Amino acid sequence: MRIANREHRSIRLENGDMVHLLLIGHSGNERTVQSLKDTLIRQGAKVVHYANMDVHAGGHAKQEELKK
After folding, report:
1. Of 5, 10, 12, 13, whose CB has the highest number of CB atoms within 10 Å?
2. Which band of pLDDT confidence, cut at 50, 70 and 90, is reported for residue 3?
3. How large is the average pLDDT for residues 10-19?
4. How many angstroms separate the CA atoms of 50 and 24, rounded?
5. Is 63 exposed, middle or buried (0-12, 13-18, 19+ CB in 10 A)?
6. CA–CA separation, 65 and 62 (whole Å)
7. Please, how many CA atoms are within 13 Å of residue 56, restricted to the half-sphere of its CB?
8. What is the pLDDT of residues 18-62, one digit of tens each?
């Protein structure tokens, strides 16, 4: 959310960046999740999540990915 709102101190989205969301819209947070996706898309990011692609992640990046 901080990245989408441009509040993160070291990460900035650029047009064409891909964002993989691990969020699932549960009862009560669907609007928040949709708002987050809309904000990312408006900034030019390609949003990937379980509903639009066959993707899954455990939630933790590997050490090499974290370095990047």
Report:
1. 13
2. very high
3. 93
4. 8
5. exposed
6. 5
7. 1
8. 998 876 666 788 888 889 999 999 999 998 876 665 555 556 667
